[in-house]
Automatic annotation (TrEMBL):
It comes from Kineosporia succinea. This is Uridine kinase. It comes from the Bacteria. InterPro entries: P-loop_NTPase.
C-alpha cells in the first residue's frame, strides 16, 4: 500500500454523516484569511486526491445529499489546456465570480478553440460548490476554498481503476504514465492533505458501499 496515512485510524461512516459535517468542518486556515469576501453564503469544497481515488463518486454522492450544490470538475477546466497549469482559469472563470454570488457560465479557451459544446455552469443561488479533481486543493486555490476533502489512495489500485475505466490499451497506459510523471511532483509540492478538514480513504479494504458510505480518518 502507498497510503499517506496507512494506519488511519479508519472507520466506515454513512455519507449522510460526511455531508452533515461539511459546514461545521469548513474553516479558514491561516493562508486563506485574505480570501475575497463572498456576497452570498457560498461554501467552496475542494475534493482532492490521486487519480482513481473516487473523487467524482464522492462529489456526486455529496451533491445528492446537500441541497443547492453544484459540481465543477477540474478535468473540464484542464481539457486540452494543461494537466496542472489551470489554476488561473478556475479562479478567474469560476471561483471569483461564484464567490461574488454571480451565476457562472464559463467556456475555457480550449473549449472555444476546439468547438466543444456547453459550458462550466454554476447556477445562481448555489450554496455549496464542490470542485472535484486532482489539484482541487492546491495552494493557489486556498484563498477561494473553505474546505479541502482529501481522498487517500493506493496508487496501484488507482491505476487499475483508471485503466479499467478508460480501457487498458497502450495509449491509456502511456497517458497514465505521463499523468503520474506530473502528478507525483505536483502532489509533493502542494500536499493538500495538510490543509484537509476531512480525510477519507478511496481504496480501503474495509467493506463498504461507496454510494452510501465512506471510509473516514478520525
Amino acid at each position: 500500500m502507498t497510503l499517506i496515512f496507512p494506519d488511519g485510524p479508519w472507520r466506515v461512516a454513512p455519507l449522510d454523516e460526511v455531508a452533515a459535517r461539511l459546514p461545521a468542518t469548513a474553516t479558514r486556515h491561516p493562508e486563506t484569511a485574505d480570501r475575497p469576501p463572498a456576497s452570498s453564503a457560498l461554501t467552496v469544497v475542494a475534493v482532492d486526491g490521486h487519480g482513481g481515488s473516487g473523487k467524482s463518486t464522492l462529489a456526486t454522492a455529496l451533491a445528492t445529499r446537500v441541497p443547492r450544490t453544484a459540481i465543477v470538475h477540474t478535468d473540464d477546466i484542464a481539457w486540452h489546456h494543461s494537466i496542472f497549469g489551470w489554476s488561473d482559469l478556475l479562479v478567474d472563470g469560476v471561483l471569483a465570480p461564484a464567490r461574488r454570488g454571480e451565476e457562472v457560465t464559463f467556456r475555457p479557451p480550449a473549449w472555444q478553440r476546439r468547438g466543444r459544446e456547453g459550458a462550466v455552469h454554476v447556477p445562481a443561488g448555489t450554496r455549496t460548490l464542490v470542485v472535484e479533481g486532482t489539484g482541487a486543493g492546491r495552494l493557489e486555490l486556498a484563498p477561494f476554498t473553505d474546505l479541502v476533502i482529501f481522498l487517500d489512495a493506493d496508487l496501484d489500485e488507482g491505476r487499475r481503476r483508471c485503466l479499467a475505466r478508460d480501457g487498458d490499451t497502450p495509449q491509456a497506459r502511456a497517458f497514465w504514465d505521463g499523468w503520474m510523471a506530473e502528478e507525483t511532483p505536483f502532489m509533493a509540492e502542494h500536499r493538500p492533505w495538510e490543509r484537509a478538514g476531512l480525510i477519507l480513504c478511496g481504496t480501503s479494504d474495509l467493506p463498504h458501499d461507496p454510494t452510501r458510505e465512506a471510509v473516514v480518518r478520525d
